[in-house]
Design a protein that fits this description.
254 residues, Rossmann fold, globular, alpha/beta, 9 helices
Amino acid sequence: MSLLSARGIRKSYGNLEVLRGVDFSVAASEAFAIIGPNGAGKTTLFKVLTGETLDYSGAVTFDGHDVSRLPNYRRVRGGFGRTFQVARVFGELSILTNVVLAIETRRAARGETVTHWWDWRPLGETRDEAMATLASVGLSRSLDEAASLLSHGDKKRLELAITLAGRPRILMLDEPTAGMSAEDRRGTTRLLLDLKTQGMTLVLTEHDMNVVFGLADRVMVLNYGEVVCVGDPEMVRQDEAVKRVYLGKGMAHA
């Protein structure tokens, strides 16, 4: 059974129809990539899937439950994790505190014991979990440093740590390697492969085809809000319609 599915998703901005009846499903523990040219509707589809916008038609189902009308915070509590093309972190707070806050937010939502705001000393178990989460993404140094001082790639890693601290069942990754150096892209791809190996379900948009074809089990190609093709990477790479609208002849044989 699929973990996430979308059926008949349509979304318009005024008279401009951005998504035109998008259908697909994602299995548990699968890495599913959504690609397409600029303006294809990828970001809008992500907003629909994660509950950032509720003004659309169609249905989104997660783990057998219709979540179409649930706002984003409810979907997060239900198991969604979300990262953004430009990392969203609390720049004025320390690296460690960013993740501690995420853990305490998760614990509070579940009715568990958390630190009182007037006595900001996180529980030992919370601090240990935060440090372990940061280590898992390759950030185990200078944890008291302000997040604003991190490099672009490390901010993306911190954002991923914050997301993982919520213990999601599915990771929604919008351009996870955008703006990264080649070395950071390789490191991020290895990290996502590790998460996939551990059973995490991944849904990502990505422009770097080396990342896509090295990570995804299946790929969906969007063009002008419509699904052009869905299949394994090699099938998508060789699809004539995909070559015509996005990959081109050179990438098809890369």
